[in-house]
Amino acid sequence: MKVLVIGKGGREHALVWKLAQDERVKTIYAAPGNVGMTEATCVPIREDAISELVQFAKDEQIDWTIVGPEGPLVLGVVNAFEAAGLKIFGPSREAAALEGSKQFAKGLMERAGIPTAAFAVFTSAEEAKAYVSRQGAPIVIKADGLAAGKGVTVATTLDEAVRAIEEIFNGDFGDQSSVVIEECLVGEECSLMAFVHEETVIPMVLSQDHKRAFDGDAGPNTGGMGAYSPLPQFDEQAVTDEAMTRILRPLVEQMASEGIPFTGFLYAGLMLTNRGPSVIEFNARFGDPETEVILPRLETPLLDVIIPLTAGEEPEVLWSDAATVGVVIAADGYPERPQTGQPIDLTSIDSKVLVFHAGTTEKDDTLVSAGGRVLVCVSQAATMEAAVADIYQGLASFDQTGFFYRTDIAKKAFRTT
């Protein structure tokens, strides 16, 4: 088979890496891909150039296309491919509004009776500021539209909340016409993703992302500084079962009943409160950097899940018990003003560490940084303690000039050990 992966980051590199292990996959293309994707042929087509992507898939007789990022999904890449008779895994433009508009997602959750934070939506900065002054802090401020994982502020003071509102309406997170303001849920977060086709939902294993930039969950929110799986501090089966019953199945059933069935990778960001799991956000694609620790645990070939699932079957999905930890190496200044163009010495990373490229390019035959999140480095071991020790030993000699990473990824997993 020929497979096309749309996207260019660490998540897409992990998808390419996983597909390359399938002996039935003859050729993998990545559009646009990145220099680290040696398992694929990278083609210079932007992920939002939908008509060019469709034409390429036709010309190359691509058997399956898998979409990584949210941008092309919201733009309707799935609609365009399906209209051309091409097989693609991802939600339609209408279903991708689950991520494209937080207001839309909140409405769906209300109609489906899904537990989530109380919220209000404002199109005026002044009205939003007046609301937060009445509600007080802590409070959560979210840009309504896509913001590359950075348009969320958990404000601990009213000044911080007001500043976040002003940033959203000033265009710091792109063209945003409204803001969603939520109560601040208390608990521990986790990510539950699932393979979905209409009303069939197959949960993946749980993972936990680390959103804050610095150790101890300090600093600004980022797209994610690391992740790990499994989560030994929880009863994972109980969490998954409750989330399936109260959140994932009600969501896909509601979407199907409203004529916008979901197909693709469904991401539920959950807060485990004293009342059970509650939804922080839904995404219409694989999480990043969660993908980089989930796919190494997936023992079933990816296409052995996607192909039967989209044919109306429910495939068996097998998972490894291996403890998996991923650490993001980010550029200095990330997330506000990442410095790019810094040389990267991959030879200083232990060869046992699995390295996914997220924001890299080549300049004068030298690998350099080209984004905020540069690499995602992953280790697997029999225990979480061993996996954590391995990843940080593997990074001990890495030249951090121009880069930084958190040194406490997966620390929360040691509560029960």
TrEMBL record:
HAMAP family: GARS. This is Phosphoribosylamine--glycine ligase. GO terms for molecular function: ATP binding; metal ion binding; phosphoribosylamine-glycine ligase activity. PROSITE patterns: ATP_GRASP, GARS. GO terms for biological process: 'de novo' IMP biosynthetic process; purine nucleobase biosynthetic process. It catalyses: 5-phospho-beta-D-ribosylamine + glycine + ATP = N(1)-(5-phospho-beta-D-ribosyl)glycinamide + ADP + phosphate + H(+). InterPro entries: ATP-grasp, ATP_grasp_subdomain_1, PreATP-grasp_dom_sf, PRibGlycinamid_synth_ATP-grasp, PRibGlycinamide_synth, PRibGlycinamide_synth_C-dom, PRibGlycinamide_synth_C_sf, PRibGlycinamide_synth_CS. It comes from Exiguobacterium oxidotolerans. The gene is purD. Residues 106-311 form the ATP-grasp domain. Keywords: ATP-binding, Ligase, Manganese, Metal-binding, Nucleotide-binding, Purine biosynthesis. Belongs to the GARS family. NCBIfam families: purD. It holds the Pfam family GARS_A. Pathway: Purine metabolism; IMP biosynthesis via de novo pathway; N(1)-(5-phospho-D-ribosyl)glycinamide from 5-phospho-alpha-D-ribose 1-diphosphate: step 2/2. Its EC number is 6.3.4.13. Its cofactor is Mg(2+); Mn(2+).
